[in-house]
Design brief:
This is Chemotaxis protein. InterPro entries: MCP_chemotaxis (IPR051310), MCPsignal_dom (IPR004089). Belongs to the methyl-accepting chemotaxis (MCP) protein family. By secondary structure, the protein is an all-alpha fold. It has two domains: about 1-185, no CATH class; about 260-440, Helix Hairpins, CATH 1.10.287. The chain contains eight helices and no strands.
């Protein structure tokens, strides 16, 4: 439809151009008629030709029929000019002028039609002039000259036909390019979807293919820009979350650093206490070892007392035996004194006293023996208890030694823990510094992500112009 409209516009322009040329030719014909005293012919024929041209222009403008009619009228005016000038050669230039005017249609058919009309006119009027019928083509009939004129007309017509074809193609191509540009360049958008616009010329097809490729590229860019915009939004949101978590982590790391400092101080105090405990344990070990040696001496002493008590018990047994024998001897002495009568009375008294003394001695020895037995039992019990105390003291010494070793190990471990806690504190401080640096980096990334998001939105807005 647009192509037909463009051709119609071009035909209308050609019709108007030829109509102006016809008007000029009419004026020239009247002037020639007045010049060569044949104004009636000039005016009459001019009016007829003007009427024919006017009817064609009014009722069939822009059509092939109108082009043929206007071409015929313009050729007829050139023939009228030659006729009125009695075949003046200078007026034959009108042939070439008219052929040049016909190029405005960019239609080779009109050019060929005009050239054919001129050929018919020249050959017919030359032969009619030669017959003496009052028609003029040249000043005098000359068929060879007419043939020469025809050759020039054919040459010019051929060139114009080639130009018309080329220019028509260029015009169609320009028209297709104009339609494509008009379709692309809308008021607020650039529409690259030109698949519905028909093209036939190489330039139009190339531009259409280029626009379609651009449309595909822009669609891809639009999709990529939208994806970038969404990704930037996600990155910005993620960076915000990361920033919040980093700040929380930094706060937690600072708290851990403070707690590590307190722990380091506590461990240092524990190490000092462990050293003191180790020293006290060492002292307790020494005291326990001294106590063990004292208990061992007590055990030895108790064993000696036990042995002495047993010896005393044996001695008491000997004394008891002596008292028993003394008692027997006293009893024998009393019996002998009784036998002696008065003479043995004093001896009997002594024997009685000795017996009484022996009995008391035996009784005392018995009591002493009982006491010594109790003492021996108690000494044995004491010796047993002292032996148990010695064993317990030995175990205490061993336990205190082990406690001292454990306390020493704890002290050593505490000393090592101090250095390790210090290392952990330094590591936590490094983590704190790294976390703060990460927080700063996250803020920079958030700023960059925001800028990138703004740029992506601007790109999406820019690409949205293309449809």
């Amino acid at each position: 439809m647009n192509h037909a409209k463009n051709l119609s516009s071009l035909a209308a322009l050609g019709d108007k151009t030829l109509l102006v040329a016809i008007g000029g030719s009419c004026v020239a014909a009247i002037l020639l008629g007045l010049q060569f005293v044949d104004s009636g012919l000039a005016i009459g024929v001019s009016l007829v030709l003007l009427a024919v041209a006017g009817v064609a222009f009014l009722f069939a403008p822009g059509t092939l029929v109108c082009r043929y009619v206007l071409t015929f009228v313009l050729v007829a005016f050139v023939a009228l000019h030659i006729q009125l000038a009695r075949g003046m050669l200078e007026l034959h230039f009108g042939v070439f002028v008219v052929l040049a005017f016909l190029l405005v249609y960019l239609d080779w058919r009109v050019i060929v039609f005009g050239a054919a009309m001129f050929a018919v006119h020249h050959f017919a009027f030359d032969r009619l002039q030669a017959a003496g019928l009052g028609f003029y083509c040249t000043t005098e009939p000359d068929f060879l000259r007419i043939v020469l004129h025809a050759v020039y007309v054919v040459i010019q017509s051929g060139v114009e036909v080639v130009l018309a074809v080329q220019m028509s193609r260029f015009a169609r191509e320009g028209e297709e390019l104009s339609r494509l540009v008009a379709a692309v360049n809308q008021q607020e958008t650039i529409v690259l979807g030109v698949a519905a616009i028909p093209t036939a010329t190489p330039g139009g097809q190339a531009l259409k293919a280029t626009l379609e490729r651009m449309g595909a590229v822009v669609a891809s860019v639009r999709a990529s820009a939208s994806a970038v915009d969404v990704s930037c939004a996600e990155i910005a949101s993620g960076n915000q979350d990361l920033s919040d978590r980093t700040e929380q982590t930094a706060s937690n790391v600072q708290q851990v650093a403070a707690q590590m400092a307190e722990l380091s101080e506590t461990v240092s105090q524990s190490t000092a206490h462990a050293k003191q405990a180790s020293e006290l344990a060492s002292q307790a070990r020494a005291v326990a070892q001294d106590g063990g040696r004292v208990v061992a001496q007590v055990v030895d002493t108790m064993q000696g007392i036990n042995a002495s008590s047993r010896k005393i018990s044996d001695i008491i047994g000997v004394i008891d035996g002596i008292a028993f024998q003394t008692n027997i001897l006293a009893l024998n002495a009393a019996v002998e004194a009784a036998r002696a009568g008065e003479q043995g009375r004093g001896f009997a008294v002594v024997a009685s006293e000795v017996r009484s003394l022996a009995g008391r001695s035996a009784q005392a020895a018995k009591e002493i023996k009982n006491l010594i037995g109790d003492s021996v039992q108690r000494v044995e019990m004491g010796a047993h208890l002292v032996a148990q105390a010695g064993s317990t003291m030995t175990e205490v010494v061993g336990s205190i030694g082990r406690v001292a070793d454990i306390v020493h190990a704890i002290s050593t471990a505490s000393s090592q823990q101090v250095s390790r806690v210090a290392e952990v504190g330094n590591a936590v401080a490094d983590i704190d510094l790294a976390t703060q640096q990460n927080a700063a980096l996250v803020e920079e990334m958030a700023s960059v992500a925001g800028t990138l998001q703004d740029k992506s939105k601007a790109l999406v807005h820019t690409v949205s112009v293309f449809q």
